[in-house]
Design goal:
Length: 136
């Protein structure tokens, strides 16, 4: 898993997450990855996990060996919220659960999250075929 193209917008960052099939055979992905900011030692989740963006419908993505799929993550700037309702915390990772998996992958990624789960800074789209070369 890698962080692909990132672009900023008013108050948000859009980050592409690429999923690459590193096995010798085909695999499939369907639906949404689970994503959250994380940090500390031991690494723990910071704040609320990403909500699901329903702009596109989920489709079965088949990846041949070495092929890539992607999901688009939107991270709203923690600074958009009053410190008392956010409790800003530096994060050092994206905690990513590939669709239908229960073991996270930690991808080095510096950001600021909200420790309080009442503020949801993240939303993620469905996994789509191809690398995320643009963020539309």
């Amino acid at each position: 898993m890698t962080a692909g193209l990132a672009q900023g917008a008013a108050g948000s960052i859009y980050q592409v997450i690429d999923f690459t099939n590193v096995s010798g055979g085909a695999c499939t992905l369907f639906g949404y990855p689970g994503v959250a900011l994380a940090g500390g030692s031991p690494v723990t989740q910071i704040g609320a996990a990403a909500s699901r963006s329903t702009a596109a419908s989920a489709t079965l993505v088949t990846l041949g060996a070495g092929a890539t799929a992607n999901a688009l993550l939107r991270i709203t700037e923690a600074g958009n919220y009053p410190p008392a309702s956010c409790h800003p915390v530096a994060s050092t990772y994206l905690q990513i659960y590939p669709p239908n998996q229960t073991t996270p992958v930690y991808l080095a990624y510096k950001s600021t999250g909200c420790a309080l789960t009442t503020v949801n800074l993240l939303s993620v789209g469905v996994v789509q075929a191809g690398s995320g070369g643009s963020t539309g």
